[in-house]
C-alpha cells in the first residue's frame, strides 16, 4: 500500500494534495483496495460548494456503494471528467490520474485537522 508523504489524509480515506490555494482530492490506495473494482463515480459539478466532512459524491464498486466526504471546504474548480467513462482509473492510479476534484480552499486551517502520511498509515494499520 502506498502513503505518499506530501499528501494529507482524512479518516474517511480521502487524500488532499495542496497546490497553492487549491486542493486536489482523491481516495487513498487503501480505500480503492477495500472497495474493489470501481464501476461508477458520482462527483459534484464545477462551482459546487463543499463543506468539510459533508458528502460530495459516491463511489460504487461491484458489491458496495461508499459516500465520499470532503476533507476540506471550498468551491469545486475542476472535476476529473475521465472518470465518467473509466472509473477504474482510480483503482489503477489513485494518487495521480485517479484524482476526483480540485477545490479552491476556503479555509487553510482545516488542513491542520487532517493526518500526515505517517499518522494515516498508523490509522489504517489499527483499523485492520
Please explain how this structure is put together.
This protein has 128 residues and is an alpha+beta fold. The chain has one domain (8-110): OB fold (Dihydrolipoamide Acetyltransferase, E2P) (Beta Barrel). Helix content is 20%, strand content 34%. The protein has helices spanning 29-35, 82-85, 89-92, 117-126, and strands at residues 8-9, 14-19, 22-27, 38-42, 49-50, 55-61, 65-69, 74-79, 101-105. It has a 6-stranded antiparallel β-sheet with strand order 1-2-3-9-8-5. A 3-stranded antiparallel β-sheet has the order 4-6-7, with no helix packed on it. β2 and β3 (22-27) form a beta hairpin. The longest helix has 10 residues, at 117-126. The radius of gyration is 13 Å and the shape is globular. The mean pLDDT is 97. Its cofactor is (R)-lipoate. It holds the Pfam family GCV_H. Keywords: Lipoyl. The glycine cleavage system is composed of four proteins: P, T, L and H. One of its GO terms (cellular component) is glycine cleavage complex.
Please give a handful of descriptors for the protein shown:
2-oxoA_DH_lipoyl-BS; single chain; 6-stranded antiparallel beta sheet; lipoyl; 3-stranded antiparallel beta sheet; alpha+beta; GCV_H; 4 helices; 128 residues; OB fold (Dihydrolipoamide Acetyltransferase, E2P); globular
